Amino acid sequence: MNDIYLIFYRKSKKYHSIWLTLSTKCDNFAPMKQKQIDRIRCFNRKYTKVLGILNKQYMGSSFGLPEIRVIQDIYLHPNRSANEIAEELNMDKGYLSRLLKNLERQNYICRSICKNDARKGIISLTESGIAIYHELDNSANQSVNDIYGHLSESQIASLISHMEEICSLVCSPTSDTQERDG
User: Fold this and answer.
1) Does residue 48 sit in helix, strand or coil?
2) What pLDDT digit, counting tens, does each position of 91-102 carry?
């Protein structure tokens, strides 16, 4: 049996509505217990603190984590459209649009028209953007070393194994292999 809900939400000073169908019968899983939810949220809070991702500027750069992820995605996947970047990063298109405008204003990205489809805009890194990507990549490598460098080889192997297990449980199966390896 399915429950159907009409949901109203506000966006840009206008009210919109969507129909949402929720299945009340879930054969595959039971709802999580509050204690489990609390433990996962506690881990998430601790880990975001360890990584320092809540700061406005991340890894000593003038960028926040969203800008860094956008730059990284454009570098790893050249000639993508804004829609493809938004989909890959699961990022709000309006927010991504503002980030891209800012990166373009700083001369880190450029836009062009796709040769095969004139309706599609392509986003690429400029020479400055490529240089900043390499700086950020080096900073990220140093950050990983700073956070985990005190661990023994066996502890690092165990940590990586646990990270891969977490990804296998919660990450999309379509996640890019470059993302795992890079």
Assistant:
1) helix
2) 999 999 999 999
